[in-house]
Amino acid sequence: MALDHPGTLSGRLVTLEPLSLEHHDELLAAARDGELWRLWYTSVPTPEGMDTEIRRRLGLQEQGSMLPFTARRNDTGRVIGMTTFMNIDAATPRVEIGSTWNAVSAQGTGTNPESKLLLLGHAFDVWDCSAVEFRTDFHNHQSRAAIARLGAKQDGILRAHLRPAAGYVRDTVVFSITQPEWPGVRVGLEHRISRHLAEPGAPRLG
Question: What mean pLDDT comes out for the span 188-202?
Answer without folding.
Answer: 81
